[in-house]
Amino acid sequence: MNISISQKQGSVPVTVIGLDGRLDGQNFQQLIDKGQELYNSGTRNILLDLTKLSYISSAGMVAFQNIALLLRGETPPSLEQGWSTYKSMGHSGDGSKTQEHFKLFNPQPEVDHILDMVGFNTIFKIYMDFDEAIKSF
Questions:
Q1: Of 67, 90, 61, residue with least CA distance to 15
Q2: Residue 35 per-residue DSSP state
């Protein structure tokens, strides 16, 4: 998997992370590390461009969760905790709420199906129009 980074300006700065290839147990830590690096350097809004992502495993979804929690100001769980914190993402006392600072753009049908199947489409706002996605921050 290749990771590309670009910056866009909406009403706030938005960092766009482009993923190319497969996101799975072999490389999900690279995405977590990149998210942590960006957060440490001041990034607070991320749009994940899934246009070229051909596959995502459960490990990839843990990476999404990890970065989203970080952007919410929460300490991401250890990898051993895995899915247990996934369930808490949309249930922080105010019902099922989508993430404000971490959004997804243009998942391919195979990836979109997996995101839908595990309920990530209710946690993460998914955009098909790039300009609309940037303006949403």
A1: 67
A2: H
Please, what are the domains in the chain?
2-135 (3.30.750.24)
Q: How far is CA 57 from the centre of its chain?
A: 13
Q: Which residues of 90-121 are buried (b: 16+ CB within 10 A; e: fewer)?
A: beeeeeeeebebbbbbbbeeebbebbeeeebe
Residue bearing tokens 């899915």: 83
pLDDT tens column, 10-41 = 999 999 999 999 999 999 999 999 999 999 99
Radius of gyration of the CA atoms of the chain, in A: 14
Supply 89's token pair: 């993402």
pLDDT tens digit string along 85-107? 554 544 443 334 678 999 999 99
Find the helix or strand (DSSP H, E) in which 114 lies: helix 109-117
H-helix segments, the chain: 28-40, 58-71, 109-117, 120-123, 130-135
